[in-house]
Design a protein that fits this description.
Blueprint: H1 2-9, H2 48-52, E1 60-65, E2 68-74, E3 83-89, E4 92-98, E5 103-105, E6 113-115, E7 125-129, E8 132-135
Antiparallel strand pairs: 1-2, 2-3, 3-4, 5-6, 6-8, 7-8
Length: about 140
């Protein structure tokens, strides 16, 4: 089954990235202050366990690069009271959730991506969208 195979191969690293900033309360990103629009909705056939881990009404599109989309969302179930970063290539996805930010997710051979509510200092990370950073030197070739 495509979904389970890709998920088994996907590397999802969740980290509190010590030293980058203090932990932010859940839902502290102002993207959650606006109403959800159609582009914020997750892929209709998205990886089931990734989609189930978040409140569907809370998903917000952060960035899109080709067929890859990046979302922030509020967690549910085991991830309740968490903020989540979700990455989808088409309808196959991975996510990481944390009760504090920043958090990092790596998926399917991509570089590390970080969701952070504060600016990230230093040369290790490059901002690609509001709240979303990619690990410098590991960015994918365009």
């Amino acid at each position: 089954m495509k979904r389970s195979t890709v998920l088994a191969v996907a590397v999802v690293a969740l980290s509190l990235a010590a030293g980058l900033s203090g932990c932010a309360p859940v839902g502290g990103l102002d993207v959650f202050d606006r109403e959800q629009v159609a582009s914020d909705e997750l892929p209709a056939n998205g990886t089931e366990n990734v989609v189930a881990a978040v409140e569907q009404e809370s998903t917000r599109l952060l960035w899109q690069k080709g067929d890859t989309t990046f979302y922030a969302a509020k967690g549910t179930g085991d991830s309740e009271d968490s903020t989540c970063l979700m990455i989808f290539e088409g309808d196959v996805g991975a996510s990481g959730c944390s009760t504090g930010l920043p958090l990092m997710v790596r998926f399917n051979g991509m570089p590390n991506y970080m969701l952070s509510d504060t600016p990230v200092a230093g040369d290790d990370w490059t901002k690609v969208a509001d709240y979303l950073f990619v690990e410098s030197g590991r960015a994918e070739n365009d």
